[in-house]
Write a structure and sequence with these properties.
Layout: H1 12-20, H2 23-40, H3 48-70, H4 79-99, H5 114-194, H6 200-214, H7 225-242, E1 247-252, H8 266-279, E2 286-294, E3 300-306, H9 319-332, E4 336-342, E5 348-354
Parallel strand pairs: 1-2
Antiparallel strand pairs: 2-3, 3-5, 4-5
């Protein structure tokens, strides 16, 4: 459907011209005209007010020509060249026009009086020198502004693409960790079933309830430390059913930290490692303690400590921890670290330290 234009609205070219003739440009042109009048005043016998009026009219006419030439789309020459050529042609014409009132509009009378002719030539020469230089200066400033605008647009586009890549990377890492956790837990249930344990149905029911609550949160971009606390409680309760005499756990995650953004399953990965590689191999079992705190320097810290068999030098690095480090980097950038150390008197201490960028 064609657009309907207001009959009283100016044409598109006129609107563009009026938009380009902004007050800032008019003030600059008037200021330069005043400076030129002051510089030429000692040479002219014409009163300063008359000379100033002429220079102001010339400056505004040339500004109009310069702006109009900048709106032309010429295939045969670049825009700046069209503007400079237009100024060179308009400068003598504008000077001649300001002299016409003195000669009552007689076209050639300007050139018959020696004083008027010398004034015409002097003003024209000054305008022919200054106007192109100012036009080129304006072109330089415009190109510089365009370059800055393009650089800003490129930076915004790069930021948008980097965010998209980061989101895709997080989704990929979550997709890698979900089956890993699920298959490990199902393997534990399978062991109970094969052993004929009467706890198998209860454990399986708890697993189903846990997965029903956990699965929608695995790829949740708005995941929080509170969500992680709920998952840890459900998971450790599930594992305690499997080995009631060998696993004990403590959760110390302050309520005021529950709203903090936190990558889903980050602590759960550490707790699962503690159960599988620390508590399970230990004959007497052990305790898993999870706590979080705000450090004096403003950073945040979460720790998973177990009293299992401890670090084994011959053990190869697990894919779960490598995946976790990548997820932390994707979630927090370079503001997060994961460190493993020995837990005195025995076991492993895993520490995540990060900076809350939303704070």
């Amino acid at each position: 459907m064609p657009a309907v234009l207001d009959a009283e609205s100016p044409p598109l070219g006129a609107r563009r011209l009026l938009a380009a003739l902004n007050p800032r440009r008019a003030l600059i042109a008037a200021g330069l005209a005043t400076l030129a009048a002051v510089a030429l005043n000692p040479i002219f016998v014409t009163p300063f007010t008359v000379l100033l009026g002429r220079m102001l009219v010339i400056a505004l006419l040339l500004l109009l020509v310069h702006t109009a030439a900048g709106l032309l789309e010429a295939a045969w020459a670049p825009r700046w060249m069209v503007q400079v050529a237009a100024l060179m042609l308009a400068a003598p014409l504008a000077t001649w026009l300001v002299y016409l009132p003195d000669v009552q509009g007689q076209v050639f009378e300007v050139f018959r009086h020696e004083g008027r002719l010398s004034g015409f030539l002097l003003i024209t020469a000054v305008v022919l020198v200054v106007a192109p230089l100012l036009a080129l200066g304006a072109l330089y400033r415009e190109r510089d502004a365009q370059a800055r605008s393009q650089a800003l647009a490129f930076a915004l586009e790069r930021s948008r693409l980097e965010k998209q890549a980061l989101d895709a990377r997080l989704r990929l890492l979550h997709a890698q960790i979900e089956p890993h956790f699920l298959f490990n837990t199902l393997a534990n249930v399978q062991q109970l079933v094969e052993a004929g344990s009467p706890q198998a149905p209860r454990v399986l029911a708890s697993l189903i309830a846990y997965l029903r609550a956990a699965m929608p949160r695995l790829a949740d971009e708005g995941a929080t430390l509170g969500n992680e606390a709920a998952l840890l409680q459900a998971y450790l309760a599930l594992m305690q059913m499997r080995m009631p005499d060998r696993l004990r756990f403590e959760l110390e995650l302050p309520a005021e930290m529950h709203a903090l953004r936190f990558p889903p399953m980050a602590l759960l990965t550490l707790v699962e490692n503690a159960v599988r590689h620390g508590i399970d191999p230990a004959e007497q079992g052990g305790t898993i303690r999870v706590q979080a705190q705000r450090l004096p320097d403003g950073r945040l810290q979460a720790q998973v400590a177990d009293t299992g068999v401890g670090l084994r030098e011959a053990a190869p690095p697990g894919t779960g921890l490598a995946n976790l480090r990548e997820r932390l980097a994707a979630f927090y950038g370079d503001g997060a670290t994961l460190e493993l150390s020995e837990n005195v008197p025995r076991g492993v201490l895993a520490t995540i330290t990060w900076t809350d960028r939303a704070a």
